[in-house]
Amino acid sequence: MTGGPPRRLRMLAALAAVPEALPLPEGLAAPRAVRRDDLRALGRLAFRAYRDSVDDHGESEAWHSEDLRAALDGRYGSYMDVGRVVEDGAGDLVAAALFTWHADLPLLAFCLTDPAWRGRGVATHLIATCARALEAAGHREMHLAVTDGNPAQALYARLGFHVVPIPG
Questions:
Q1: Rounded to two decimals, what is the model's pTM?
Q2: Spatial separation of the C-alpha atoms in residues 133 and 149, rounded to whole Å
Q3: How far is it, in rounded angstroms, from Cα 147 to Cα 134?
Q4: Fold for domain 8-164?
Q5: Calpha distance 15→2 (Å, rounded)
Q6: DSSP 3-state helix, strand, coil percentages of the chain (rounded to 5)?
């Protein structure tokens, strides 16, 4: 038994170090801006993305929708409109990246990928696309928080993120 909740890590990346986006897999639409009417679909996506992961604490699809609504409303810092979603040919969301302004930097508050699309470059494409938008807006860095042991840590490291101390 490990005792206590899983440890959260803060990771930081210089935007210039994030590689350019590779093409999305066939059958997916180009990333588009997040819309408020995406909330229900984002909740479904988050539910699928977190299910059976280190970050699954039994939350319902409705809980995830409300958490994402709260993020858009500023719970995790001011929402930044650089976030993007990716849809499949049927119009279903398969991935999303949402950013807020937190601790004086853009925060990748949510990075969600449907399990059926993991390992195919979708999240890499989204994060790289958002990094370019953040750079164009004059930002130099971005950060995120991830649960220690989350397999996404490897993705973030490939994209230039490194673990830094959590400000006190």
A1: 0.94
A2: 29
A3: 24
A4: Aminopeptidase (3.40.630)
A5: 35
A6: 35, 30, 35
pLDDT digits (tens, 9 = 90+) for 50-90: 999 999 999 999 999 999 999 999 999 999 999 999 999 99
Element (H, E) at 63: helix 61-72
The pair of structure tokens assigned to 157 is 């490291």
Using DSSP's 3-state secondary structure scheme, residue 2 falls into coil
Question: So where are the chain's domains?
Answer: 8-164
φ, ψ dihedrals at 16, nearest 5°: -65, -20
Q: Which single residue is written with the structure tokens 């009417």? A: 37
Question: What phi and psi values does residue 153 have, to the nearest 5 degrees?
Answer: -55, -40
Using alpha carbons, select from 74, 79, 88, 76 the residue that is nearest to residue 32.
88
pLDDT tens per residue, range 105-158:
999 999 999 999 999 999 999 999 999 999 999 999 999 999 999 999 999 999
Within 13 Å of residue 84, how many CA atoms lie on the same side as its CB?
20
Burial bucket for residue 168 (CB in 10 Å: 0-12, 13-18, 19+): exposed
